[in-house]
UniProtKB/TrEMBL annotation:
Pfam families: ZER1-like_2nd (PF22964). Residues 125-480 form the Protein zer-1 homolog-like C-terminal domain. The lineage of its organism: Eukaryota, Metazoa, Chordata, Craniata, Vertebrata. Keywords: Ubl conjugation pathway. GO terms for cellular component: Cul2-RING ubiquitin ligase complex. Belongs to the zyg-11 family. PANTHER family: PTHR12904, ZYG-11 FAMILY MEMBER B, CELL CYCLE REGULATOR (PTHR12904:SF22). SUPFAM superfamilies: ARM repeat. InterPro entries: ARM-like (IPR011989), ARM-type_fold (IPR016024), ZER1-like_C (IPR055142), Zyg-11_UBL_adapter (IPR051341). It comes from Larimichthys crocea. This is Protein zyg-11-like protein.
């Protein structure tokens, strides 16, 4: 039918409000398609007397048409507005949603400004078709394009939270579809999303670890390990404990460390894997036990020697060994003369970074704090204790944050007045370090956990070394000043 004839028919339909004039692309004669396009163009640009009550027009499949009437809502594929309208109108129709998402993906490949409106529509399509592989395959790719780089930071946090929850659903629903998993991983690999957006981080960590177990692509492996490392640091103690109890997870991370160590490579994948293991074992005795049972200790001893000149690697290795040394029932596993001699050499070496020497000192302080459990020679223990004190008094406090603590419980045994000065000095130096860098957080923790009483006892005891008394008093002064500032602020708020 010619455009003129069609327009005449339309002019008789005064009450028509919704018109579907889409093209299914099946027509053999392309002239019909061109005639239809011309009809739509004239309809949009023509007299308001034709279809005066029309409020929506579906021209899907007609790439040559853009809307000219601002009062009409047009669904199609010529531009963003038409595609978005299609997603709104046909949310419950899987095939339409899929096609609209494909066109949207092509339109937003180079998007450079935040589009929360589009993200909401993509999310709606995913939620309406939770088991459709075709929808989720394209939708997850759209999510990545809409949240990449700095775009996510301008989105509402609640929208991002819902989006990540939906990504996790996609990962869980399609565990064996590599491209869906890859799209979700790409979208998750954002510092802002991982750090600031609320979602089920335990579930996310489990899903990414499961994915990691069957994929060895170096780029994706790096992203997966980075995501896991950040997520583990964000888990609650209860969630960390559950994760650390899983032998499978420990083996996966250790396998990556071994893979990198075999070729002595230093890259972000290795660093993230070491960080994840470090966080998993932090005040988690079961995870530390699993680490040992998975031959992690033997692997770490080898890596310590082969990465002797890499302080960033050494620090992460020693940090985990420090976690093991905090667990009394596991200390015997560390009492190997060759290992302790190596750690002692790191403590003594003035050319080694303070961060490395700090964790070396922590391991040795914990192991020498219990003479009844010491199974090596007395001379070695005496040498370690002397070197602890001699080394620590030379350390300069680093400006950057070097370590954080969940609690000060592991320090209780080290702060007893009966301990050797080297053990006490390491503990008070450590507490002074973190209090100096985050006074508000750690001052409250010291008070709450009763550590200030231990420090007061140390400062008052006649046999306490002057170096330890001085540091203890400085910590107590920081706590007192913080309490004074907090009290003043509270009074001002109440007045």
């Amino acid at each position: 039918m010619s455009p003129a004839r069609l327009l005449f028919v339309f002019s008789q339909l005064h009450a028509l409000r919704h018109l579907d004039f889409s093209d299914d692309h099946i027509t053999v004669d392309d002239r019909d398609g061109r005639d239809g396009d011309e009809t739509v163009r004239q309809l949009l640009e023509g007299s308001p007397q034709v279809l005066p009550n029309l409020v929506s027009l579906d021209i899907s499949g007609r790439k040559r048409i853009t809307e000219a009437a601002n009062n009409l809502k047009v669904t199609g594929e010529a531009n963003e507005n038409q595609v978005c309208e299609a997603l709104r109108r046909y949310r419950d129709h899987e095939c339409f949603v899929r096609e609209a998402l494909v066109h949207l993906y092509n339109l937003i490949t180079d998007v450079d400004k935040p589009r929360p409106d589009m993200l909401k529509l993509v999310l709606s399509g995913m939620q309406s078709h939770p088991t459709s592989l075709h929808v989720h395959l394209v939708a997850t790719a759209c999510v990545f394009n809409l949240t990449t780089q700095d775009l996510a930071e301008a989105m509402p946090v609640s929208l991002l939270s819902s989006t990540v929850t939906q990504l996790l659903h996609s990962m869980k629903t399609f565990p064996n579809h590599q491209q869906v998993q890859k799209n979700c991983l790409l979208a998750l690999c954002s510092d802002y999303i991982l750090e600031d957006v609320p979602f089920d981080k335990y579930l996310a960590a489990m899903l990414v670890i499961n994915w990691l177990s069957s994929h060895e692509d170096p780029t994706l492996q790096r992203m997966a390990v980075a995501v896991i490392s950040i997520l583990v640091a964000k888990l609650s103690p209860e969630e960390t404990a559950r994760l650390g109890e899983d032998i499978f997870i420990m083996k996966q991370l250790l396998a990556i460390v071994q893979q990198k160590a075999m070729v002595v490579v230093v890259d972000t994948t290795l660093k993230f894997a070491l960080s994840a293991l470090w966080n998993l074992t932090d005040e988690m005795p079961t995870a530390a036990r699993n680490f040992i049972d998975c031959q992690g200790l033997e692997l770490y001893e080898e890596v310590l020697e082969s990465y002797y000149t890499e302080p960033s690697i050494q620090q992460k290795l020693l940090g985990l060994l420090n976690n093991i040394a905090e667990v009394e029932v596991l200390q015997a596993d560390l009492l190997e003369e060759d290992l302790l001699e190596h750690i002692l050499s790191l403590l003594k070496d003035s050319h080694v970074e303070v961060g490395v020497r700090y964790f070396a000192g922590g391991i040795l302080a914990h192991l020498t704090s219990r003479p009844e459990a010491w199974t090596l020679g007395d001379e070695l223990r005496s040498t370690i204790l002397k070197q602890l004190h001699a080394s620590i008094i030379t350390w300069t406090q680093p400006e950057r944050e070097m370590v954080s603590y969940r609690s000060f419980h592991p320090f209780y045994p080290l702060l007893q007045t009966c301990q050797p000065s080297g053990v006490q000095l390491w503990a008070v130096w450590a507490i002074h370090l973190v209090c100096s860098q985050n006074t508000s957080h750690y001052s409250s923790m010291l008070e709450k956990e009763g550590v200030t009483e231990l420090l007061k006892a140390l400062a008052a005891h006649p046999s306490t070394h002057s170096d330890i008394k001085g540091l203890s008093n400085r910590i107590l002064q920081m706590v007192e000043q913080h309490q004074g500032c907090s009290g003043t602020s509270k009074k001002q708020a109440e007045s």
